[in-house]
From TrEMBL:
Protein's UniProt keywords contain Phosphoprotein: no
Protein known as: Transcriptional regulator, AraC family
Keywords: DNA-binding, Plasmid, Transcription, Transcription regulation
Originating species: Sinorhizobium americanum
Keyword Ribonucleoprotein annotated: no
InterPro entries: Homeodomain-like_sf, HTH_AraC, Tscrpt_reg_AraC-type_HTH
Pfam families, alphabetized: HTH_18 (PF12833)
Single GO MF descriptor: sequence-specific DNA binding
Tree of life domain: Bacteria
């Protein structure tokens, strides 16, 4: 199956583009790592991104927050 045929089939069957699905999968796989306190750089590299800024931009577009802020929000505050 050609790439073009696959992307058309994927969109028809799922209702989303393969690229959008892939990005959401990467973000949701990254959430537990970020919540556990792993550095954004290591999470991005493990996700296959060589450019940390690209990972951050994609993460922000999907979640609405940059990964570092998401990680801080997900952990208990030291001021409590």
């Amino acid at each position: 199956m050609s790439r073009r045929a696959f992307t058309r089939f994927f969109r028809r069957e799922t209702g989303v583009s393969f690229l959008d699905w892939r990005q959401h999968a990467i973000v949701f796989a990254s959430l537990p790592r970020l919540s556990a306190g792993q550095p954004v750089t290591s999470v991005a590299l493990e996700a296959g991104y060589r450019n940390i800024g690209a990972f951050t931009t994609m993460f922000r577009r999907v979640i609405g927050l940059p990964p570092k802020r998401y990680a801080q929000k997900g952990r208990p505050s030291a001021k409590r």
